[in-house]
Amino acid sequence: MSLPLEGIKVLDFTAVQAGPACTQLLAWFGADVLKIERPGVGDVTRRQLRDIEDLDALYFTMLNSNKKSLELNPKSADGKEIMEKLIREADVLVENFAPGALDRMGFTWEHIHKLNPRLIFGSVKGFSDGHSYSDLKVYENVAQCAGGSASTTGFWDGPPTISAAALGDSNTGMHLVIGILTALISREKTGKGQKVAVSMQDAVINLCRVKLRDQQRLDKVGYLEEYPQYPVRADGEFGTFSDVVPRGGNAGGGGQPGWILKCKGWETDPNAYIYFTIQDHVWEPICKAIGKPEWANDPAYMTPRARQPHIFEIFADIEKWLADKTKFEAVDVLRKFDIPCAPVLSMKEIEESPDLRATGTIVEVEQKKRGKYLTVGSPIKFSGFKPSITGAPLLGEHTDEVLTGLGYSKDKIQQLREAKVV
Ligand SMILES: CC(C)(COP(=O)(O)OP(=O)(O)OC[C@H]1O[C@@H](n2cnc3c(N)ncnc32)[C@H](O)[C@@H]1OP(=O)(O)O)[C@@H](O)C(=O)NCCC(=O)NCCS
Question: Which residue among 12, 43, 169, 214 is the active-site one?
Answer without folding.
Answer: 169
